[in-house]
Amino acid sequence: MGAWRLLAVWVVMAMAILMAAPGMAQMPEGVGEDDSERESEEREWFPLDALNTGLDETPDEVRRQTPRESIRSFMQLTANHEYSAAAHLLNLSELDEAEQQQQGAELARQLASVLKRGEWINVSNLPSRQDAAIEDPSGQNPRAGEPRRSLELASLEVNGDAYEIRLGRYRVEEEDPVWLISEDSVASIPLLYEEFGPSLLETYIPERFKTSLGMLEVWEWIAIPIFLLLIGLVGWSIFGLVGLLSSWSPNGVLSIFAGRIRGPMALLVMAFVAQVLLDYVVSFTAVATTFIRVLLIILIAWGVGTIALRLVDTVLLKVTRRFVGEIDDTKPKDERQLLTSLYALRRVIILLTVVAVGVYVLSQIQLFETLGMSLLASASVLAVLVGIAGQAVLGNILSSFQVSLAKPIRIGDLVMFEGQWCYVEGIFYTFIRLRIWDERRLIVPVTYFVSKPFENLSIKNAKMYRQLELVLHLSADVQVIREKFEEFAKEEENVVEHHKLCCYVTGQTEKAQTVTCYLMASDPFAGWIAEMQIRERLMTFIRNNHPEWWPRDIVVLSQQDIAKDGKPEKPRVRVPVEGENKGDGAVE
Fold first, then answer.
1. Looking at CB atoms within 10 Å, which of 219, 470, 544, 556 has the fewest?
2. Digit-coded pLDDT (tens) for 67-124
3. What are phi and psi of 85, to 5 degrees?
4. Which distant-in-sequence residues (6+ apart) come within 8 Å of 486 by Cβ?
């Protein structure tokens, strides 16, 4: 029985809803439409009951229909010192009516000073439409044509906190909507003025010098050159002072480091002094201040990065002098490999420093916020352009890392490159520096070096076989030559592994024989010297003791070859037979 009663209740409720639906569909026109229209209008402006009731009647020169007109009107009025009229472009709803008249003019003056020094605003970039809708004929912007009721003019930072100056669109009932500085922005004007207002020095400048002349004021055209001259004198003094410190220890690592950082240190101190002067002594308009601050950020980042790299170079030089010494292949393999790894580490540090400095500079000048989407959109095009323009440079950099990782050569290795004996003296980003045996330097691009075959004479160790050849007469005693060679070779300091000394006849002609002697030297250059010295001693031995061992040509003249006038017609050359009498017209 209870189940039937519950079912009856549900049926009655369903019939009541069905009967009410037609009535809802036939509601009077305008009830739902008014609500929808009101919501649409509120998306285009902020509704107000009253606006700046404490101010006088709005002057005719105050134009507030579009964002561009509002800011242009505000700048023109404040430039003419008409701050009471400029107050009509502020939303003073947070102030009492009695305070709006007096404080409105002062707030307008302070805001004008903040906009002049804090961030340069290009009025032409503001929307000229009353609804501030985004105009995008290409149709790529999804918000194109959508009305806006709030725009950001500037974003300023005070003590690490960001404060925005925004334009808002307001409408009092039965009046046209207008664009004003929002009430939140008006509330932050005193704080921003304390940070970006005129400096103490500017209070002493006569008013006639504060008139505008181009993009700057008259006094700025005079003060900026003096400012730069003062900063230049500071940099020149620091440059000389660091040089003086370098001269105090002419032979130490400190002297080398100080000599390398004179320029970066001078620019770094110049940037810091200029920053202090801009913060506490003088302040220029936003155009000059923005340019100077960006320049200071770049100088500081470049100075710190350069000093860090000079420090790495100095440490690398000290390690080289202490553990490696002169760069050649006489040093152990581990020491040369350590030096190669240090050079590779230097290139990694340079790359990371350049990236860090670039990111820091871009973040400080806020390019990521304004150009971020554009950079992402054009990343592929930029990559193609950079790849084409810097193909050679990028190829050398990648090849440099390849050489550092694979290590086909190491710092100090002796290589035979295009017929030249060279020591690898340095492996850099784009080139390899080779020291030729006669102390000349050969600079080779990395890609060119790795694309050409070369002989690494130090890939295993510095030892190297050397050979010397002597061309002697067929009658020369090879055993005597062999004994003398071994005697002379064992007396040479740079000849090692004496059990590998050998001497053989490696060639023969009808007139002479070629005797070749082999020796093992501690390194290629020392082996060359040992080879020359042993050859000289063997030649001296043969010249003093067995001059007949030198190869010679023999001219044999017969009686038939002698003409009637006693002169030979045509001499004939032949090799004499052993034991042959040299008479019978034989001539040597």
1. 544
2. 999 989 998 888 888 888 999 999 998 888 888 888 889 999 888 888 877 776 778 8
3. -70, -35
4. 498, 501, 503
